[in-house]
Hints:
Keywords: DNA-binding, Metal-binding, Repressor, Transcription, Transcription regulation, Zinc. This protein is α+β, with helices and mostly antiparallel strands.
Amino acid sequence: MSTKELEVRLKERNIRPTAVRLLVLREMMSMEEHQAFSLLDLENRLDTVDKSTLYRTITHFHENLLIHSIDDGSGSIKYSVCRRGCDCSVPQSHVHFSCTECNRTFCLDNIAIPKVGLPSGFSYESANFVFKGICSDCSKRHN
Length: 143
């Protein structure tokens, strides 16, 4: 993605493009398609960026709905860049898949989280739906 395209993505979410934010977003966008990443993944890939700056940048991106978080049960929150136009509301949420062999987590953008009828008086603000199993790459290695 060009710098201009990255700037547009940031501005769409009311995030001021700075050199560090552009660098972090570029790295996030370079991750394997549909694969989620952890803060540690970014720290390892962007070892020249101060850890606290990286954490603040991720937090800012999350607060402005540029990325969404995934609790895949690994003990480390994962993140993924949101699709354009996504507002991270429950109706726009999608299923995630966590591979028990390679420990990667993937966004399954085309599989919506099913609607759940909650009891009267209950309302939900977020949903986390994670399948666990063996991803296609790991399955190929077993065959």
